[in-house]
Known about the structure:
Helix content is 0%, strand content 60%.
Amino acid sequence: MILSATIDVMTDTATFLSDFGIEIPNEGTLSKVVFKNDRIRVVAFGFDEGQELTEHTAAVPAIVQVVSGRFKLTLGSESVEAGPGSWTHMPAHLAHSLLAREPGVLLLTLLK
């Protein structure tokens, strides 16, 4: 069961998700927006082994956080191996790509 709650904390509002609600599809990739407001957009991705996002850029800075699995991230001309707990900040317009080395889940945060 996925628990999503909006919690008022004094004058601000907090959002809590007990689970991203993302499943890893067989031989595919799945994405789901789990939060958005006027400043950020958070997308959860589920990748099966061997699935990839080909080289692209984003118009805004972004953060990639690996939740589970292993990924090859190519950032500009450099490649890194990213596993659970890894964190990457990418400036706007940086060419990047991703290859899932094993089934996994990551969070992409787009910063407006």
